Model the fold of this input.
Amino acid sequence: MTVADTAPVPPAPPARGNRFPLMVFLLAVVLVLAAGAGIFWLLRPRLVFTNALAGRVRLVVGEDPPLTLAPGASVRIALARGRTMVVQWELVRPLSADGQPMGEEVRGSSVSRGPSGTLRAAATSRTGQIRRGANAQAACAAIIVPYTAA
Done:
């Protein structure tokens, strides 16, 4: 028998590994990462601020641009983790005919170190509080309104 008499050997089919376990593993990793990101986002500290005054309020949280809230309006703001949060608000005073603000300033502020959970605050004419569990901090000033008897 010569080399020319032998039949050529067909090439072996390409080796195909079982990809099912690899795909299941990658899907599990993606699901775990998505769940972790969702928990991180949902547990982010938030501030719920309500304007309980009869006038508009300008609200500044940290270094964010100011927001103006209508009377009775509420806003929910996401806060940065692990940073000291400073909340400041002031009543937007109406202007007189000569363009000067009328009335006395009504404003409040609060500082919270390392906020967690949902903090609730309100602009009121009485001393308010920003509540965070058992800790509460003063958040506004009282206003004195002139009154004349008729």
User: Anything to note?
Assistant: The first strand starts at residue 46 and ends at 51. Residues 128-144 have pLDDT under 50 and may be disordered. The chain is about 15% helix and 30% strand. Residues 45-138 form one domain.
